[in-house]
Design goal:
Layout (H helix, E strand, L loop, with lengths): L1 H15 L2 H4 L5 H7 L8 H26 L11 H6 L11 H32 L1 H5 L7 H16 L4 H28 L10 H21 L6 H6 L1 H4 L1 H29 L7 H4 L6 H32 L9 E2 L8 E2 L1 H18 L2 H29 L4 H23 L7 H29 L3 E2 H10 L3 E10 L4 E2 L1 H10 L1 E13 L11 E7 L2 E8 L7 H5 L14 E11 L9 H13 L3 H4 L7 E9 L1
Parallel strand pairs: 4-6, 4-9, 6-8, 9-10
Antiparallel strand pairs: 1-2, 3-5, 7-8
Length: 620
Amino acid sequence: MHDRKTLSLSVAALGVVYGDIGTSPIYALRECFYGEHGIAPTPANVLGVLSLITWALMLVVTLKYLTIVLRADNRGEGGTIALVALLNPWRARPGSQRYLLMLLGLFGAALLYGDGAITPAISVLSAIEGLSVAAPALHGLVVPLTLLIIVGIFLMQQRGTGGIGALFGPGMTLWFLTLAALGVHGVIGNPAVLVALSPTHAVDFFLRNGSTGFLVLSSVFLVVTGAEALYADMGHFGRSPIRRAWLLLVLPALLLNYYGQGALILDGGDGLHNPFYQLAPGWMRYPLIGLTTFATVIASQAMITGAFSLTRQLVQLGQLPRLTIIQTSGDEQGQIYIPAVNWLLMLLCIALVLSFRSSTHLAAAYGIAVSSTMVVTTVLAFFVARRHDWHPALVLPLALLFLVIDLAFFGANLLKVMAGGWVPLLMAVCIFTLMTTWSRGRKLLQLRIAEGEVSTEALARRVKYDPPHRIPGTGVYLTGGDHAPAYLLRHLERNRVLNERIVLLTVQTVDEPRVPAIDRLRGWGIAPGIYRLVIRYGFMQTPNVPVALRLSEQLGLDIDIDDVTYFLGRATLIPSDTLPGMALWRDHLFAFMAHNAVRATDFYSLPPEDVVELGFHVEI
């Protein structure tokens, strides 16, 4: 039974985890020899590049991610934000090591949005470019068809992927088997290519080509793009299924296909320009275009889903403003849809296709975002390992080895910044600016609001010695800290009326992926009729306050959910250059984001008819 479940999860992982890295053979080897910065396809160079590809897959994917990084899990979850959360940096002192690591991790997360925009563009574009091989007269249809498919992928998101998700695993299984079959076909034609398995060919490649060989590393790097997904999606499948899928099918299929293409290049030919499609027999090219397009749709879908998941984590941890998050499945909590992210990525993908118009041009923009993220992962994993007492004699040498490899790839991609690499970097800088402005602005806003708050004990004394008129029902006041919110005090002063039962409620997001329902609610009494409750969620969960309040019976507090009024403070922000904190332009940016953030009513799933908003002005 256990083996059957592991096999099922391994097949499912093929459709989610390995979509991006699995579609790299479409364009990676082509870019090494026929791209804008390609090297001459001499036999020595072909063997050298194949050797580099082999050991990049072995060292970066198999050793770094599957063997080492997958061990750095946060209660079973992986990914950049889960890794940052293990360092518990959110309240770190500015300038401290943990604070700087937090900023590094957030920038790494910002880079993933650039990856999320480029992956669908380059993947689908490279698939449709097969038409130029099968029928050169159809070359003019490549860009329009690519745009049509990309728009279709993003339109599909709002319906959820539950219906077609079941096809992803079997579809990618067929894809990898096809890659392997094509590779075997090519290797049989020239088995001498297999000598490239020796790392000596990689060393010889650098000795002969020098700086030119170093530049080719940016194209070789394309074979490991998507490796971050192995770690980010660990929580969905677990370590064992991801590792088995890689070792038993994905790695052999990728190597066979790369070596098959290498054998074709060794055989030469004046018309050779797209070895992936030209490796296939003529009768197979149209079906291969169809299968390749399907595989790239799966790869794009996985990347978009990853962007949704990352955004929810950042929103929950207070690094982005509240956004509309729609659950598209009643069974799978991870199946969500975020309209703002979806449409932004779609517009970016369309702009990239229209601007670059070929996967070769896009390849220059692709590597810099992923290589930067891999450097971030190595650094963060090192500090997490130190904090969790991994053996230092093992941690430091491995970290240095991976850092040397990551920096080599990063340096090679950095040389392509002016050729398109600036695009994901600019995206990352913009998103990072939004995150840091929002996080800093929230802290400044909380400090300003706290000036009008009083302790819960002071509230209890006031109600006791100057009792207001009490009305039936429960009044729930959302507050961000341990004090009575200022808007409650204003309400009390002006209206002199309170519900017979008052609940001061705080919704917290902890540094864990999920909080079990049994640990969701904490609370205590402050005074007769006044209670303090804290609802705790993980950074991968969506809050629902009414559902959580039903757990109040566990605390001996019987709250009738049908007789609750929710009171919220709604601040109107007034940017000012006379107050310390942020630059005025960042004050205006924060005010704009706060104004356009999803209302707390919707974010916490509060029934609108039971919500009362009390407004006030705050200078920032």
